[in-house]
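Problem 12. The chain below contains 161 residues. Write out its predicted structure in token notation.
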Amino acid sequence: MLRLDMTRKPAWHEMPGGVRLKLLPITTALMAEARRHPDVVAALETVPAEGDDAEMSRATDEAVAIPFAVALARLAIVEWEGVGDAKGNLVDPGPETIPALMDIWPIFEAFQTRYVQKGLLLEQEKNASAPSQPGSGAGARITAQAAKGRARTARKSKSAR
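Solution.
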């Protein structure tokens, strides 16, 4: 079952190394804005324009994964705990510090699996089958004819008795 979070409040997510990220809920608007980020657009331009679907999909995923995650992190991170500079002084999330945090592989991986993939899994789920027609079906046309007479059960053959 898909559970809707109607509050749309940021939530804390645990990351490796004692880091906690307070992230906005992953929404369509957030995903769309991250896709329009100049780094993501530039990465998409590096993908070859020709090839079979599988090759192009793999090339797109490889080219865009990191820029997309960083763009999404820039939009989604509203607060964090446990992040400091080289001298150990706490730093706030910002245009330079968020990409630097995403450069740390365990943090990037955790962000991908604990936050980004949740949004992508929902996107894949909706593509799993054809959409149902909207509505209750109350206004649908009947296409089968009504049965004529009572239904009869099959007679048993003499050999089955």
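Discussion. The chain has five helices and three strands. Students who got a different answer should revisit the alignment rule from Section 12.3.
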